[in-house]
Amino acid sequence: MSRPFSFVRVTEKAEKALKNGHPWVYCDEIVASGDGICDGDIVDVFSKKGSWLGAGFFNSASKIQVRVLSRNSNDRFDTAFFRRRLSWAVDYRRQVMGPDFQCCRLVFGEADGLPGLTVDRFGDILVAQIACLGLERIKSVIYAELLAVMRGAGERIAAVYERNDIAVREKEGLEQGKGFVWGEGSGTTQIRENGLVFNVDYINGQKTGFFLDQKYNRASVARIARGRRVLDCFTHTGAFAMNAAAGGAESVTAVDISEEALKRAAENAAENGLDIGFRQANVFEMLTELAAKKSREFDFIILDPPAFTKSSSTVSAAIGGYREINQKAMKLLPRGGYLATCSCSHFMTDELFRKMLSAAAADAGVSLRQIEARQQAPDHPILWGVPETDYLKFYIFQTV
Q1: Where are the alpha helices (H) located in the chain, listed in sequence order?
Q2: Which among 308, 319, 311 is positioned nearest to 353, based on CA atoms?
Q3: Nearest Cα to 346, choosing from 324, 314, 371, 370?
Q4: Global pTM?
């Protein structure tokens, strides 16, 4: 794609956000537009006074009507441009992930200047999601260039699988679906994280098949777990539980409401020769029952719940849910026990999360001695000015 493009003019609010680094223009922030714009086209973005602010993909079907690609007026949006962006993303992971480059997030959307694109690497399998109409239209170019970049780095890739079975695509006017777009595979693969082996179902597993962002947080849990009686809540594929067991925990119990998740977790534990107990239960109900019995069965509790809020309108209700499970976990722990707790919703800001934890501690009648405050692994980079990329809060405390 090369200039000239059509254009949009935006409000002063949008102008300020763009100048501060945020790459989105919302539908109510466009005050004028040129003729002949088609959804998926690249448009130039101007201020009300005519200053050029950038260029990006336009989509009238989306609440986010422009996703900015570049603020460099000299950029030409040709194949070389996208190869350059992909090369930067891959080179960054090689640098910051070291040996973990074999299993990491290769592309993290806006944080890599590729709006709406997610690519996770599981060894020789790449799993992709696209949530942007503009990139959907040129995805054959994107995949071809990504494969070329990986080959140029000496990496062997057997297949690219699309997990476009995400509801957000419908908000972009895109159909859902999944399948191989290049190469072929069995649908499952094996990865290694923190010295442990995991079987990944990249066709039917949640998201792209495995949650890579907690990699180093799980290693932190392993360091604390030695000699502890660990309860891992919302265990999913058992990753926190396995890291705790491998770290020398006295015992580990992993809980999830999903029978299928527990089956996969048990298989992963057996693959690594780890002795873990599994319980199928609603975590809220189980914590309530343990609290009623004044149980002291566990002295290290891990809370890794799904996102309780996916919009600003449900934050208040989510705070109540987080407060409830954290307060119950704190009450269950003996003095000197340990708590690892997190939130994966960017709407639940760090400030809100810390206030919630303080309130939960007051409810439980304990004080929190902070051991670590962490975020997502660096293959999920946080782009300053884009709060949506800053989503994972992870704390480890001792209760005193």
Answers
A1: 12-19, 79-97, 133-137, 139-152, 168-171, 215-225, 239-246, 259-271, 283-292, 315-332, 350-364
A2: 319
A3: 314
A4: 0.94
Q: Are 345 and 334 in contact (CB under 8 A)?
A: no
Radius of gyration of the chain (CA): 23
Considering 103, 104, 233, 344, which one is annotated as catalytic? 344
Beta bridge partners of 190: 199
Query: CA distances (Å), 214 to each of 37, 147, 273, in order?
Result: 41, 26, 22
Is 135 strand, coil or helix? helix
Strand bridging mode 52-58 / 42-47: antiparallel
H or E segment to which residue 179 belongs: strand 177-183
In whole angstroms, give the CA distance from residue 339 to residue 330: 7
Alpha-carbon span 72 to 246, nearest angstrom = 49
Distances in whole angstroms, Cα of residue 219 to Cα of each of 195, 196, 208, 246, 371: 10, 11, 21, 10, 14
pLDDT by residue for the chain (400 residues), tens only, comes to 555 579 999 999 999 999 999 999 999 999 999 998 999 999 999 999 999 999 999 999 999 999 999 999 999 999 999 999 999 999 999 999 999 999 999 999 999 999 999 999 999 999 999 999 999 999 999 999 999 999 999 999 999 999 999 999 999 999 999 999 999 999 999 999 999 999 999 999 989 999 999 999 999 999 999 999 999 999 999 999 999 999 999 999 999 999 999 999 999 999 999 999 999 999 999 999 998 887 889 999 999 998 887 777 788 888 999 999 999 999 999 999 999 999 998 899 999 999 999 999 999 999 999 999 999 999 999 999 999 999 999 999 999 9
What is the largest distance, in Å, between two alpha-carbon atoms of the chain?
71
Q: How far apart are the first and last CA of the chain?
A: 61
Active site (annotated) includes residue 344: yes
Contact between residue 106 and residue 126 where contact means Cβ atoms under 8 Å apart: yes
